[in-house]
Specification:
The chain is an alpha+beta fold. It has helices at about 35-45, 125, 130-145, 145-170, 180-215, 240-250, 255-260, 280-285, 285-310, 325-335, and strands at about 1-10, 15-20, 25-30, 65-75, 80-85, 95-100, 100-105, 115-120, 220-225, 270-275, 280, 315-320, 340-345, 355-365, 365-370, 380, 385, 395. It has a domain at about 1-115 and about 310-400: Rossmann fold, CATH 3.40.50. A hairpin with a 2-residue loop joins strand 6 and strand 7. Helix 3 packs across helix 4 (about 145-170), helix 4 crosses helix 7 (about 255-260) and helix 5 crosses helix 9. It is globular and about 65 Å long. Bound molecules: adenosine-5'-triphosphate (ATP) and magnesium ion. Adenosine-5'-triphosphate binds near residues 13, 34 and 61. Adenosine-5'-triphosphate binds near residues 29 and 344.
Length: about 400
């Protein structure tokens, strides 16, 4: 999968109309010029929620009435176009089109444009709370199985209704028998979600293990496992039997749930437990190990997606490469050698020795300089950058 053309106007301060190369695209510019905004405009077209909690009301440029984002991309089969328009007067009601066909919302087009994003916040995958790892695996599975999204949405709806009911019961008002109905439905969707997460975690474990091992040059190994708050094991269990266990678990926790006023057990409380060299990563991992694991998980996500769909995802790096040392940068770029990359950085030196592609200098939301294949000398932010061919190292001449 490759983005070929990007046309953005009025999405925050962005106004660009650019051809995108199938290899590496580097957005370079000083802070606060709009590099991440471009990545964000692309990311929203995947149908996922913003990776930095962007609110609808903040999408449109302060000085404009609407934002228009048009992304042309190719798959193995055809050329596609995603268009979405956000009006300042009603930013929640986005006009979304996939190949000219109107869709209800951006989430409705999830699964079409498939991207994997790397940001400095990915470190939370290793050291943050379970919710970060749940969100990660939820996106991974959804990209492969659209039915998973249906289960997840239904589960979350029922969960919030059940929690409301628990509070009512706590206050002596709710109808306890309604809990049986909610528990039946939660068990059904919860079992489906758990099984798909469990299945995916096996793929992830094998793939991430290899990547992490290679990245550490064979010195370290990682392992991971899906930890369900409901099931002790999935081995040899049929779906119906698991669903019964789920229901029994909810029933056994019912008094506790009523006392707390919320549902304390279920897939919304699950986690992925990661170990490096047999030690819990979250508790004992060094910063470097945590970063390498987070990278390994994302690279594994890309590899699995490519293997199972036959289509390479598009890799978005927002500032993430500047966080890692050069050896790992080169490793990462080699791993995704056959995928399209769009990366942002402040320092053109991060534009890597490993591979080259197009370079776009971004200033105040616009492309002020474009270099095709990094074949010539350019000046960015007062620096002269020299790049001669693919194997050449970018040289930074501070004397200009
Ligand atoms: N609704 C909006 N309308 C116009 N400009 C906006 C809007 N929202 C944010 N901006 C501008 O976007 C800029 C920040 O963009 P962005 O976060 O993409 O920068 P960046 O180039 O990624 O910077 P950094 O290198 O620090 O990450 C700021 O200048 C901000 O004023
Ligand atoms: Mg940024």
């Amino acid at each position: 999968m490759r983005i070929t053309h990007l046309k953005i106007d009025g999405f925050k301060n962005i106004n660009v109309d650019i051809k995108v190369t199938p290899t590496v695209n580097i957005l370079v510019g000083e802070n606060a010029n709009g590099k991440t905004n471009i990545v964000e405009a692309i990311w929203l077209a995947t149908g996922c929620r913003s990776f930095r909690n962007l609110k609808d009301k903040d999408i449109v440029d302060f000085t404009k009435e609407k934002a228009t984002v048009e992304i042309t991309y190719t798959t193995n089969e055809r050329e596609n176009k995603i268009l979405y328009v956000v009006e300042k007067s009603n930013p929640r009601d986005k006009k979304v089109y996939l190949n000219g066909v109107k869709k209800k919302s951006l989430s409705q087009i999830f699964g079409n444009l498939r991207c994997i994003i790397f940001t400095p916040d990915d470190l939370e995958l290793s050291k943050g709370g379970p919710e970060h790892r749940r969100t990660f695996i939820d996106i991974c599975v959804s990209q492969l199985k659209p039915v998973y999204i249906m289960h997840l949405n239904k589960y979350n709806d029922i969960l919030s209704q059940r929690n409301m009911l628990l509070k009512e019961i706590q206050m002596g008002r709710g109808d306890v028998s309604l809990l049986d109905i909610y528990d039946e439905q939660l068990s059904d969707h919860g079992t489906n979600i758990s099984l798909m997460r469990e299945e995916y975690s096996h793929l992830l474990r094998e793939c991430a293990k290899r990547v992490f091992f290679d990245m550490s040059r064979g010195h370290e190994y990682m392992s991971l496992k899906y930890q369900s708050t409901v099931f002790e094991s999935f081995k040899g269990m049929k779906q119906e039997a698991l669903k019964e266990i789920y229901k029994e678990k909810l029933l056994s926790m019912r008094d506790e749930d009523i006392r707390m006023g919320f549902t304390g057990t279920g897939t919304h409380r699950d986690d992925i437990i990661i170990e490096v060299n047999d030690l819990n990563l979250r508790e004992y991992g060094s910063q470097g190990q945590q970063r390498s694991v987070a990278l390994s998980l994302k690279l594994a996500q890309a590899e699995i997606l490519m293997r199972l769909t036959g289509e390479s995802p598009i890799i978005l790096f927002d500032d993430a490469l500047s966080e890692i040392d050069k050896r790992r940068q080169i490793y990462v770029m080699n791993e995704i050698d056959d995928m399209q990359v769009i990366l942002t950085c402040c320092d053109p030196i991060v534009a890597l020795e490993a591979r080259i592609g197009n370079l776009y200098a971004i200033q105040r939301g616009e492309v002020i300089e474009f270099v095709d294949n990094l074949k010539k000398m350019i000046k960015i932010g007062g620096y002269k950058v020299e790049a001669i061919d693919a194997s050449d190292i970018l040289k930074l001449d501070e004397n200009k």
